Structures are given as C-alpha cells and as structure tokens.
C-alpha cells in the first residue's frame, strides 16, 4: 500500500498541471481571439495617444481610426474624467509606424447614414513629433443628418403645395365640370400649337432679315469697340467742360444779370412815371400833339415849296446879264 500512494499523488499532480496549462492556453487563446476580433495586431507596434472630448457623440470602443481612409488603429478605451465640466478621455491605439506632428487632431465623424462612427487623424504642420502617451487635439464633426430638419420642413411645404395643386385639378375635373375643364385645356393646347406654328412660319419667312439684323448688330458692336477710345475722349472732354463750368464764377454772372434786370426795371418805371424824354413822350399827350402838329406844318411847307418854289427861291441869273450889257 505504501508503494501505491506515491503513484496516486503523482497522477493527481500531473492532472492539476495539465488543467492549469489548458486554462492558461484557453485564456491566452481567448485574449488573442478577442484582440484579433477588435482588429488589433497583437505582435505589431503599438503606440497609444489620448484625446479629451466634451462630447464624443456615438463614439465607442473598437471604433476604427483612419488616416485619409486608411486604417491605422482603434479606439481601445473611453473614460469619464470629470462632470463639471464634462471631460471624456478616449484612448487611441495606433498600430502603424507614423511620425505624427504634435498639432495633429483627431476628428470624430459619422461614417455612414446608419450612425456608424470613425475617428479621422488630421496631421498638423508642426516640426515637433508627438510622443507616445501624448494628448492630441480633437473635435466632434457634424453629422450627416445635420440640417435635415430644414430640408424636411421644405419638403413638407412642397408636398403641401403639390397637394393643393392636386385638389385644384380635382375640382377642375369634377364630374359636372369635367367637360368644361377638358375643353378649356384642349383649347389652350390648340392655341399654343397654333402660336408655335405661326412663330415657325414667321421665322422661316424672315430668316434672311433676322440674319441681316444679327450681322448688323455684330458690325455695330465691332464699330462701338473700335470707337471706344474716341468715346472715352469725348466723355473726358465733357467732364473737363463740366469742371470748367463748375469752377467758373457763376455768382458774379448771376449778380451782373440781376443788376441789369434791376436797371431795366428802373428805366421802365421812369418811363411809366413820365420821367425823362421818353417818359414825357409816352405819358404826356400834349407833347405828342405838339410834335404831331409840327410834323404836319413841316409837311405842308414841303408841299407848298414843291408847288411854288419861286415863292421861296429868287432866281436872278438873266437880270444880272442885262445889267452887265448896260454897263458897256
């Protein structure tokens, strides 16, 4: 019996060692399997960075981290740091060998319309490279459905308008009015067809004229383009003339004109009041009558002289000759 006891203890110890080894192997396999399912390369290079958010949206562990669409890691942990203010820390594992500038940022964005999330790494411009365990900048990008409320409101308005149009068409084609409504639409379509045909005929008949008008317009536009420098010169001259007129002493001209008008008014007033020769002539009838009588007397004198000039002119030519003969 003494020989059997050591054998039993040895067997039990061997079994315990086997169970322990199997348990360790199972745990290791479970760990490696879970890690593999998370998309983490167990034997690859592992560098952890951190990002602190105020709002992480729908971010969760195992969210993919990408660089321009290429997967470079995973989110391996999320922890609430504080509640006032709210600070949420995300642990980000980067499995690729990258030199990440320290001013780079992690962007949490919506991957698809179903709500899937992704973390995009946007590389910065700093010459200094972030070290393992550094906290990088981060922000939460707007979702794909942001602003859909306004779109839905607009769509509702459009649907209401379409519904109103449908109701109006339904009323237009009611059973008792369907004939009239159909006749009106038919007449409208026929009128449109006739108008289109008339327009086609008009264009066909006057195609040459239309082409001529287009050609003339083209020539006119070219002429205007060539004359543009001359037009600019004319406009400049007009501007100079306008400036000269604006700079002229307009007030002096106005004052002179006003003085001339005042003098004319004073002269007219003197004439009306009978002052001066012209005023006496205009306002005094006696002076007019005397002048008229004088003119009449002169007229009578001229007529009398014409009728009997010897009465006023004494011609003694022949009498002088006779006196000379008598003297001899």
Task: Put the structure in a nutshell.
With 328 residues, this protein is of the alpha/beta class. It is 59% helix and 15% strand.
Oligomer: single chain
User: What is the 3D form?
Assistant: elongated
Instruction: Provide the β-strand percentage band.
Output: 15-25%
Q: In this structure, how is the largest beta sheet organized?
A: 7 strands, mixed
Radius of gyration, in Å, reads 60 Å
List low-pLDDT spans: none
How many helices does DSSP assign? 8
Distance between the termini: 234 Å
Instruction: Tell me the helix content.
Output: 55-70%
**How many strands appear in the DSSP assignment?**
7
Average pLDDT for all residues? 76
Order of helices and strands: HEEEEEEEHHHHHHH
Category from helices, strands and their pairing: alpha/beta
Strand numbers in spatial order across the main sheet: 1-4-3-2-6-5-7
Task: From the structure above, extract its key features.
alpha/beta, 7-stranded mixed β-sheet, 8 helices, 328 residues, 7 strands
Could you outline the blueprint of secondary structure elements for this entry?
Blueprint: H1 4-37, E1 47-53, E2 64-67, E3 70-83, E4 86-94, E5 105-110, E6 117-122, E7 137-140, H2 148-172, H3 178-205, H4 207-247, H5 250-273, H6 276-283, H7 285-307, H8 317-327
Parallel strand pairs: 2-6, 5-7
Antiparallel strand pairs: 1-4, 2-3, 3-4, 5-6
Helix pairs in contact: 5-6
């Amino acid at each position: 019996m003494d020989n059997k006891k050591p054998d039993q203890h040895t067997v039990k110890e061997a079994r315990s060692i086997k169970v322990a080894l199997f348990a360790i192997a199972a745990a290791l396999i479970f760990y490696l399997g879970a890690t593999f399912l998370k998309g983490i390369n167990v034997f690859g290079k592992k560098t952890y960075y951190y990002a602190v958010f105020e709002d992480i949206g729908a971010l969760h562990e195992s969210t993919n981290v990408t660089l321009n669409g290429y997967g470079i890691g995973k989110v391996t942990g999320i922890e609430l740091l504080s509640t006032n203010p709210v600070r949420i820390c995300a642990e980000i594992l980067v499995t690729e060998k990258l030199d990440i500038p320290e001013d780079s940022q992690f962007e949490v964005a919506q991957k698809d319309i179903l709500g899937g999330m992704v973390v995009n790494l946007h590389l910065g411009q700093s010459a200094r490279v972030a070290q393992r365990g550094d906290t990088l900048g981060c922000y939460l990008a707007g979702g794909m459905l942001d602003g859909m409320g306004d779109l839905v409101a607009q769509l509702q308005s459009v649907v209401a308008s379409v519904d109103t149009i449908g109701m109006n068409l339904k009323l237009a084609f009611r059973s008792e009015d369907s004939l009239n409504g159909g006749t009106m639409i038919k007449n409208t379509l026929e009128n449109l067809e006739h108008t289109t045909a008339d327009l086609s005929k008009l264009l066909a008949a006057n195609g040459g004229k239309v082409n001529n008008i287009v050609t003339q317009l083209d020539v006119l536009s070219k002429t205007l383009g060539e004359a543009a420098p001359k037009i600019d010169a004319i406009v400049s001259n007009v501007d100079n003339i306008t400036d000269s007129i604006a700079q002229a002493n307009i007030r002096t001209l106005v004052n002179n004109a006003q003085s001339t008008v005042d003098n004319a008014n004073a002269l007219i007033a003197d004439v009306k009041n009978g002052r001066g020769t012209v005023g006496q002539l205009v306002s005094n009838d006696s002076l007019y009558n005397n002048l008229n009588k004088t003119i009449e007397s002169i007229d009578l004198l001229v007529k009398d002289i014409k009728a009997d000039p010897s009465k006023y002119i004494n011609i003694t030519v022949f009498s002088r000759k006779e006196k000379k003969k008598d003297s001899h």
